Amino acid sequence: MSARDRELNAAFRTRRSLSRAGVYALLWIGVVVMVVPFVWMITTSLKSPIEILEFPPTWIPTGHFVEAAPGVWSEVNIVSRNAAAGTISVRPLGGGPETTVDGAAVRDRFRFRLENYAEAWRQAPFARYYFNTILVTIFVVAGVLVTSALAAYAFARMKFWGRDNIFVLFLSMMMVPQPVYIVPSYIILVKLGWIDTYQALIVPWLAHIFSIFLLRQHFKTIPADLYDAAIIDGCSRFAFLWRIMLPLSKAVLVAVVIFAVVGTWNSFLWPLVMTNTTAVRPLQVGLARFSQEQGTNHELMMAAATFSIAPLIVAYFFAQKQIIQSLATSGMKT
Amino acid sequence: MGRKLLLVAVVGVAAVFAVAGCSKQEDGDGVVEVQFWHAMGGPLGDTLDGLVAEFNETHPDINIESVSMGRYQALSQKIMAAVAAGEPPVLAQAYEAWTGELIENGSAEPLDPYIEGPNGLSPGELADFVPGLLENNTWDGTIYSFPFNKSVRAIYWNKNLFEAAGLDRAPTDWDEYGSMARTLTRDLDGDGETDQWGTAGQISAWMFENLLIQNGGEILTPDGARAAFDSAEGIEALEFMVRLLTDYGKVTSGYEYQNDFQAGKVGMIEGSTVSLSYMEGKYTFDMAVAPLPHGKERGCFVAGTNVVIFSEAPKAKKDAAWTFIKWFTSPEVTARWAIGTGYAPVRMSALESESMQARFEEIEGLREVLAQLEFASYEPRSAAWYAGRKYLEEGGVESALRKQKDPSTALAEAAVAVNAELGG
Amino acid sequence: MSWLSTLRRKKFMDPLTAALYLVPAGAVVVIFRMLPIASAFVLSFFDVKMGRIRGFVGLAQYAKLLQDPTFWSSLGTTAYYVAGVVPLSLFLALLAAVLLNQKIRGLGFYRTVYFLPVVTSLVAVSMVWKWIFHPRLGLLNYFFELVGGGSLQWLDEPRGIFEMIAGGLGWSWWPDGFAGPSLALIAVIIVAVWRGIGYNIVIFLAGLQNIPGQYYEAARIDGASPAQVFWKVTWPLLSPTTFYVLLSTTIVSFQVFTQIYLMTGPPVGGPMGTTKVIVYYLFERGFDAGGNMGYASAVALVLFVIILSLTLIQRRVVERRVYY
């Protein structure tokens, strides 16, 4: 390689690495945009109601302290700052007389107000909301697994009149969005006497058509010879499904569970319409009601938002690969 | 793995069934369950829940279940859907306009039999209610609802900022309202931008309506058939409101103006007496309240809802609901409700009670604010006005405050929309 | 032993057994999908006030719908929303996917982060963004002020953005009807893009990874520039994916409800009704005071027809295979 060649190559590589730096810069801008709202949520959730009103905002929650007695620092709110005199007027956190102290006497320290979480948790029956959501999720997941496996097996392996037409009819139901049938669904649940019950949140969601579709496609890939052999061995149809098909469908079943969990945990319009009381109100509706009630208590709202999304976010970090893949194949934008 | 997953699921379902088999409380042991739907959140909800718990304790045969629907719009949606379903609660907060619709549907229980019944109220007790309140809950001579959470508007003022501006009291008339707001609007650091405002508010038909009657105007014609707010008095009132909130103040979203006031950036705000409970402990200056300044005359509207009992409920539950209403509006309880929330007590004797007197000592000006009840008036109650009101708020007040239209055009256009609603 | 096998196979044809397996899912689908969908159709011909059917009105409610200014404005608002979310989301997702497809380090990390909002509940997302958009204390205006921009009213701003831009350029006059979507609606659009982009990135990335390497090899040998490679190789071969993302994002966007319900107003749909989308209008008509479930069903049917047409277009085009 001549010197000139080497020079050209080096220049090319610099340009390449420059453009690579550009790629990373863009990707990091994306990361910041995606993450900052979460950081802001958590930061806000740890602030005092007065710190919320400070502008420009602080990124790390900070409290102001003065030494009330030697070695005893008590937290204060700043009423005003007198820049000329170098003094600060402060008032104790719980209320009390205003005092003016030297500017240097006020120390700022990080102060994470975890008590906001307890306060938000106390102000609304979040424990009940959590229980309701978990309960409904468990039922829906279990139910969807059972109904999908059975239906998919029938569609994949059995021969009966009109099978393919029925299957297409099922699939066509996926094209109808929920808002279209929410009003008549309400009337149907009224007729069943199910408004404001767990049934209203569970039973209508016990069949997930896309899960049936996915399982059917998978069952079809399991060779026909396999079950011929099993049948000859005297295996019943159900036993074949139970002992052979399902163990071979692990990945698909996991996907089905993920659709059901994410879909149920985050669903909103349906439970908003179908529930009234806190006895059955799920977490998302409870959170929405909470935010409507709070008005301007941003720190409590952010604390509630944080603990409401925490379980799914934690699950996501543990099983992100499966979750991303499953949701991406489902076409489900929750 | 797949099989195990399924097995775990089935076992899980069975286990949960066993644990949570009893999802809804049924009436047992002779305890009457009464569902009460309301829209009281935050500190109001806390106070209400506290009183409900106390009632349940002192009335072992009744259990009031307090259910918050977050806010009025959501409450209205829930009530109407539940009535449509034939399954309303036993008791709910309701605006007069909702009650009107419920009466039409046969869902609102007439309360006169309860008032006159053995567990009723004596004429003396009825006379103790704040004048006008019961009349406003009467339709064609029948009382269908009972006053529950009633409030009036007040001026909240930051005494420190007033003092710094050389002012020593709240405004008493419109001229002072405007001039004090102007004085309080300041550029403190001299960068050419305002950083302290005289006043602040949200887009609210309520504020406009109060100014309107202070200026001698009316919302609707006396027969309630047409809009009357687009009169010369109305235009003048809206012009005044626009000047106040945009020249010497600012318009914020929702209740954020309270936050600005709490942060010491605003000299005074108009708010409901209930704002007190939301602001409690969140400001670091000396605050006082004052009655609304008067224009050509004094005037203020009573806001807030009443409670209705639904006819669909069984008799025992309706009786229990009435017992709760009677207890809740008794002088002692309504005074505590007032102290906890800032709502006006519904009984005159409650205003004289020791606890209210102590509260008046605590909050400077509160006595004068509640005295506005004596001359207070009420909004039109028809469902058509309730539906039409949003045109006044969005089309009229909002477009004027955002300076998209001048006040006379805004009100004229709103009047056309409201008339369409009233006519159809 | 073939006779035995045949016997067993015959049993497989037993429709009764199949029915047994289909009943659990089938019952739910029939009662909670087919029945309500059919009912929505039927209800739209009836006057239903407070749960009571007050009479058959034929097409009257559809006729009323055509005259209903709120219906048309909600449809227009929804169209603005879709027209905002879809191109923005597609462009940014494709950009991110192309960048991620550069054999970069830490692909998993970026993908995980971008996908994070997808698993976050929309209720929480709406609350957090409403706070970010806060006119005085919000993060966004803080950033704007840091870079020297003025602060905006975001969710409280009913003025159309075209009108605002024109105003910013010093034009005081702007034709009525061309004001564009309100800034409040733009704020809602931003949230939708932020929330859903991770999903589209993952789909695009899968599409990009399915493009056979030999095409790129051939392009490189021909000395094509990166831009040429993108437009001549990547873009046409990615078109089925792009089309899928386009349609699915459009269909989902037409159904926007939660963000509107939680971020706008009160009253919901504000300021000045500029964020009242069709699904919220349906909800309000169906369940609020003065509502009519029959009328709401008529609105639902219109929504259904729109979404159905989009789905059928998708079917048609995807079946033809989109290699332009």
Structure description:
The complex is a heterotrimer of chains A (334), B (424) and C (324). Chain A is an alpha+beta fold and 334 residues long. Chain A has three domains: 1-45; 62-111, Roll (SH3 type barrels), CATH 2.30.30; 118-330, MetI-like (MetI-like fold). Chain A has helices at 3-45, 49-52, 115-123, 126-157, 163-173, 178-192, 198-202, 209-221, 224-232, 237-245, 250-266, 269-274, 283-294, 298-318, 320-330, and strands at 62-69, 72-82, 87-92, 99-102, 107-110. In chain A, a hairpin with a 2-residue loop joins strand 1 (62-69) and strand 2 (72-82). The relative contact order of chain A is 0.11. Chain B is an alpha/beta fold and 424 residues long. Chain B folds into two domains: 32-150 and 304-374, Periplasmic binding protein-like II (D-Maltodextrin-Binding Protein, domain 2), CATH 3.40.190.10; 153-301 and 382-423, 3-Layer(aba) Sandwich (D-Maltodextrin-Binding Protein, domain 2). Chain B has a five-stranded mixed beta sheet with strand order 2-1-3-12-6. A five-stranded mixed beta sheet of chain B has the order 9-8-10-7-11. In chain B, strands 4-5 form a two-stranded antiparallel sheet. The longest helix of chain B is centred in the N-terminal third of the chain and has 19 residues, at 2-20. Chain C has 14 helices and two strands. The radius of gyration of chain C is 25 Å and the shape is globular. Chain C is an all-alpha fold. In chain C, a hairpin with a 2-residue loop joins strand 1 (46-49) and strand 2. The termini of chain C are far apart. Helix content of chain C is 69%, strand content 3%. Chains A and C meet through helix 1, helix 4, helix 5, helix 6 and helix 9 of A and helix 1, helix 2, helix 4, helix 5 and helix 6 of C.
Q: Ranges of chain B with pLDDT <50 over ≥5 residues?
A: 16-26
Instruction: From the 3D structure, determine the CATH topology of the largest domain in chain C.
Output: MetI-like fold
Question: Total domains of chain B, how many?
Answer: 2
User: What is the CA-atom radius of gyration of chain B, in angstroms?
Assistant: 24 Å
How much of the sequence of chain C is in beta strands?
under 5%
CA radius of gyration of chain C is 25 Å
CATH architectural arrangement of the largest domain in chain B? 3-Layer(aba) Sandwich
Main CATH class of the largest domain in chain C: Mainly Alpha
